[in-house]
Amino acid sequence: MTTLTTGHVGLNVTDLGRSGDFYRRVLGLETLGESADAERRYAFLGLDGKLLITLWQQSDGRFATALPGLHHLAFQVPDIEDVRRAEATLRELGATLVHDGVVAHSEGAQSGGVFFEDPDGIRLEIYAPTGAGDSPAPARSAPTCGFF
């Protein structure tokens, strides 16, 4: 392989409508395709026609953080103001925030973001590479994104 990039991320969800609304509002995604067939409910979400996330309604319960698999899914945005706008939307939606707002990735780091859960408890992060230098770092000895 000479080039490798992530194509899209597929997530199992319990309620396609609820999750689709959440990801569209928080990340500003558009629906690129979907199926309301009772046996095969899914949605393809993306930006500018590029597929980023697929949602599959085929789960029960909540995301199990204690089992092997996905730790968290992170989205990079251009600047810290985009992170703050996402944080405002998350608060408006009543989403579970892991820390109290924007935090640095580590003590002294310029990068940072907001850490939260989707409606099924899947751990997510929206971060910017710079601008979080004045924000607190929840864990001095470890990366913030590794232990939440």
UniProtKB/TrEMBL annotation:
UniProt xrefs under PANTHER family: CATECHOL-2,3-DIOXYGENASE (PTHR43279)
Keyword Metal-binding: yes
Pfam families per the UniProt record, alphabetical: Glyoxalase (PF00903)
Protein name according to UniProt: VOC family protein
Domain VOC intervals: 5-129
PROSITE patterns given in the database record: GLYOXALASE_I_1, VOC
Keywords: Metal-binding
InterPro entries registered for this protein in UniProt: Glyas_Bleomycin-R_OHBP_Dase, Glyas_Fos-R_dOase_dom, Glyoxalase_1_CS, VOC_core
MF-aspect GO terms: lactoylglutathione lyase activity; metal ion binding
